[in-house]
Specification:
The chain is an alpha+beta fold and 269 residues long. The chain is built from six helices and twelve strands. Strands 1, 2, 3, 4, 5, 6, 7, 8, 9, 10, 11 and 12 form a twelve-stranded antiparallel beta sheet that branches. It is elongated and about 65 Å long.
């Protein structure tokens, strides 16, 4: 687990800061209709050090949610990117989203491959609440630093809950990337091949992985609670066939995290 020290790196600091700033900005823009409760979740999570890697890195697990007095917190999947809706219409929500991907150095991957810088990804999402238990979501984000490619995700979540007392969710995931994204993480240029001994490989865009995520949250008291999640992805297509994954990484990708939550504002006891 060579990425464990990344918790004190600049990406993690930015990650945590934006996690708080984004929802707060949305809340401030709607001050005249300000919600009465705010739930903050904070804890650690283990994620692949880079797409296709066999090592994992320790990063912050952060979430901020708002709800009006008398209403339950809206469901958010534990592995979705940060964002907030700016349009809501009959169960359909659309808004901006932001994601991050840590840098990848030669020592991280275990071979002298080209560096991929820390990536800030900006984009948007659309989701539809089909029933009280079933939500569909799609999002796409463009790397404005680092890999500079497009990364997208399609997900479905089945949710069982008892208001805010406890919540369980589970559902499938499909991850897609364009040519530029896949070349950054899974391609092997002629120069990389000469330095590393890996065969040259030109990765094309398409479906990158399929998997599933399960999450659970429970209130321990009117203000304190806990949350946890686990995710598994299986690399497919050009990503799975890349020599970077086959020789140095893994087709099996695991993520998971746990956090404490605290509710600010009015709570019913």
């Amino acid at each position: 687990m060579t990425g464990l020290l990344s918790i004190i790196s600049r990406p993690c600091i930015v990650f945590a800061a934006v996690a708080v700033v984004l929802p707060a900005a949305s809340w401030a823009q709607n001050a005249e209709h300000a919600p009465r409760r705010t739930r903050v979740m904070l804890g650690p999570q283990l994620v692949p050090s880079s797409p296709g890697a066999s090592d994992v890195s320790l990063r912050p697990f952060v979430d901020v949610s708002h709800a009006r007095d008398g209403e339950q917190f809206e469901f958010e999947a534990p592995d979705e990117s940060f964002g907030f809706p700016i349009v809501r219409l009959r169960g359909v929500s659309v808004g901006p989203s932001i994601g991050f991907e840590g840098k990848r150095n030669a020592e991280d991957v275990g071979a002298p491959l080209s560096r991929v810088g820390f990536s800030v990804e900006l984009g948007g999402f659309a989701q539809v609440q089909l029933t009280d238990q079933l939500r569909l979501r799609a999002e796409g984000r463009k790397g404005v630093t680092g890999h500079r490619g497009w990364i997208g995700a399609i997900s479905a979540d089945y949710v069982i809950r008892d208001a805010d007392r406890w919540l369980f969710s589970i559902g499938p995931r499909v991850t897609v990337g364009d040519d530029r994204y896949h070349r950054a993480y899974f391609g092997v240029s002629a120069q990389d091949s000469a330095r590393s001994g890996l065969p040259a490989y030109r990765a094309r865009g398409g479906v990158q992985a399929v998997g599933a995520t399960a999450g659970f949250m429970r209130q321990l008291s009117p203000r304190w609670g806990v949350g946890t999640y686990a995710r598994y992805d299986r690399m497919v297509g050009d990503a799975a066939n890349s020599p970077v994954v086959r020789s140095l990484g893994s087709r099996n990708q695991f993520s998971g995290g746990a956090a404490l939550s605290y509710i600010f504002g009015h709570v019913r006891r």
